[in-house]
Amino acid sequence: MNIMQAPTSTPDLVAAVSGELTRTERRIAQEVLAEPTLLAFGTVSDLANRVGTSRPTIVRFANKLGFNGYSQLQRHVRSELSHRLVRPSERIRHGEEAAPTARTAIDSAIASVFEACKGERLIDLARPIVEAEYVWILSGETSRAGAHALQSGLSIVRPGVSLLKARTMSTDLSGAGPMYTAVVFDFYRYRREVITATRILADAGVSIVAITDSPLSPLAELADNWCEIEVPAIGPFDSSVPAVAMAELLVSQVAKDLHDQATVRIDRIESLWEQTEVFQ
Fold it and tell me: How far apart are CA 42 and CA 31, in angstroms?
């Protein structure tokens, strides 16, 4: 995949499988393409009732487009609607009429974080962080708040955690190896330097944990473990809330898994804070 390639549009996805669609699935496709907000902000039942079909048929349609169920297709369409107004200035000009309310958008984004962590997924995402000798954190501009939250929290519960910075990237990447883990945050529009650095790390045997916004993200194909979260536009900019929430859940799971090691480290740091009078 081209590292700057935008996620495939819904019309292109439909076109790619058009020959495989049943008559009912074609009606679903027509409704989705004519009124994407119905899919983006409605339930599977809403779409099924509109088309006059069953919920399982809607889910099969999502699967045929390459998604793991209706929810994943829905997040893709929401992201696609948001990305039509990708420049902050355009979001200011047109955002009020193109997006749901901020509360609705953030509620949906937080729900996507917990959806991404259900079952054993959070444990799987945290495991490479727990087992690594050293952890790097990489981030694009809009996801930097999540990266900083992760670096701050992980540094307290385990040693050897740092943000990978542009000015020292070449030096840092020269030491990459299989006992390292990189946690990468990046969302559409994907930053060239983030994808390039992630590719170099993956080629060096570093375990990649990616927090991104689509199965079509260039990070998804590079990662050993990845999850998809929803990143809505709030005003002119992408929200930092879901990335920070994901970071906090990862820190919580890593601390739980490290347990005694994390406890000893936290107690040591607290003692040093007291000795150096960090707090009043």
Answer: 12
Of residues 205 and 143, the one with the higher pLDDT is 205
Write out the two tokens for 182: 């990189």
Vertex 160, ends 246 and 218: CA angle to 5°? Answer: 45
Fold of the domain built from segment(s) 116-275: Rossmann fold (3.40.50)
Length of the chain: 280
What is the distance between the terminal CA atoms of the chain, rounded to a whole angstrom? 53
- Cα distance between residue 31 and residue 277, in whole Å: 63
**pLDDT tens digits for range 63-86:** 998 888 888 888 888 777 665 545
* CATH code given to domain 1-84: 1.10.10.10
Which residues in the chain are classed under CATH 1.10.10.10?
1-84
Strand partners, 120: none
Residue 179 has pLDDT above 70, yes or no: yes
Indicate the SS3 state at residue 3: coil
Instruction: Work out whether the CA dihedral 13, 185, 164, 176 comes out positive or negative.
Output: negative
**Nearest by Cα to 205 from 180, 168, 228:** 180
Instruction: Specify which residues 238 forms β-bridges with.
Output: 233
Q: What is the DSSP-derived secondary structure letter of residue 138?
A: E
Torsion of CA 145, 192, 90, 107, to 10 degrees: -40
DSSP H or E segment with residue 89: helix 88-98
